[in-house]
Amino acid sequence: MPLKEINIFRRHGKQYVPDLRKAELPAIFRGRPIISRDITATQATALCNLCPVGAIGMISVKPGMKPEPKVIAATRLLPDDVSAPDTKSPDGSRMEFSECTIDLGKCVFCRECEFALPGKIRFTNDHKLASNVRERLIISPGNDRPIQLDPVMVRREIRYFFKHALKLRQVSAAGDNSAEMELNAAGNVNFDMGRYGIEFVASPRHADGIVITGPISQNMAEALQICYDAIPSPKIVILAGTDAISGGIFSGSEALSREFLNNYRVDLYVPGNPPHPLTFINGILDLIGRQ
Ligand code: SF4
Q1: Whether the CB of 76 sits within 6 Å of ligand 1
Q2: Is residue 100 within 6 Å of ligand 1 at its C-beta?
Q3: Cβ pair 106, 248 in contact under 8 A
Q4: Residue 199 Cβ contacting ligand 1 at under 6 Å
Q5: CA 32 to CA 188: how far, in whole Å?
Q6: Residue-wise over 144-161: b if at least 16 C-beta within 10 A, else e?
Q7: The dihedral formed by the CA atoms of 277, 158, 133 and 136, expressed in degrees to the nearest 10
Q8: Which amino acid residue places its CA nearest to atom 5 of ligand 1?
Q9: I want to staple 56 with a disulfide (CB 3.0 to 4.6 A). Which of 19, 32, 51, 289 is the partner?
Q10: pLDDT greater than 60 at residue 153
């Protein structure tokens, strides 16, 4: 090989991420947020009203009661009087402000909340955001722990059949091509998830699972169902990106048809708008039990 080409290769350095499990992203990346413990009800209310997708929630509980995890996932109360720390429940009884949360299944990572209250909200560069438990995507004040899967909730057949090879069929259900591009990148020479035997395949007949991107429009609902039905069992379902997890900015639109998600168990939620390839790959590796 001529000396010139050898020097070019040396200058380029490594053209791949050597260790996907330990790879770190630059500080500019918007990953897992941290909410300050001392955020007040007034500040939380202002953020609720600011967030374009309703990702910021205020948990309110009746005096003397503790919020339950499922309540945390479902409740978003907006008091009329933003200056008041207490608010009222739908039945009219007095509620107390408990805490402010960010739901990464809804967040589009615009950072508006961080810009508005930089001392109270901070986005870290932690890209490991995926979980198999929807409630684990909800960040509460003072929580600086990494988001993890619950291994107990992983179906046994997933790790038994797919630990060493996993073929996936991707369905863009009204996606905007951003999540799809990042999933494509997960297989390129840089991230190379193929090194773990994880690949996208053209036919659902060759796939072990389906990766859904986009908010699932009515136009795509039937095609998604046909694709799912064509995949042999056992099969897994992965939602990649905010749009797929919650509808994102399209949430509540009449053009969506998300009944599919009521009928099948979701094995992995991958937050991001769009999700980073490292978020996707590490989430799958956790799901199939690879180190
Ligand atoms: S970064 Fe997320 S939580 Fe904050 S305002 Fe934007 S969408 Fe809402």
Answers
A1: no
A2: no
A3: yes
A4: no
A5: 25
A6: eeebebeeeebeeebeeb
A7: -50
A8: 51
A9: 51
A10: yes
* Burial of 189 (C-beta count, 10 Å sphere; 0-12/13-18/19+): exposed
Is any atom of ligand 1 closer than 6 Å to the C-beta of 138? no
Q: Is the CB of 54 under 6 A from ligand 1?
A: no
Host domain of residue 223: 151-288
pTM for this entry: 0.87
- Distance, in Å, from the CA atom of 175 to the CA atom of 260, rounded to the nearest integer, reads 16
* Residues 83, 46: Cα–Cα separation, whole Å: 10
Q: Is 55 in the pocket of ligand 1 (CB under 6 A)?
A: yes
Task: Give the domain-ending residue among 123, 142, 169.
Answer: 123
Same domain, 57 and 186: no
Question: Residues 151, 153, 157, CA angle at the centre, nearest 5°?
Answer: 90
Instruction: Tell me the per-residue pLDDT of 214-265, one tens digit each, with 9 for 90 and over.
Output: 999 999 999 999 999 999 999 999 999 999 999 999 999 999 999 999 999 9
Residue 112 has pLDDT above 90, yes or no: yes
Residues contacting residue 45 through CB under 8 Å, at least 6 positions apart? 58, 78, 79, 82
* Three-state SS at 156: helix
Q: Ligand 1 centroid vs 9 CA: distance in angstroms?
A: 41
Pocket test for ligand 1, best of 36, 53, 140 (most atoms within 8 A of CB): 53
Distance, CA of 187 to CA of 166 (rounded, Å) = 13
In a domain, 74, yes or no: yes
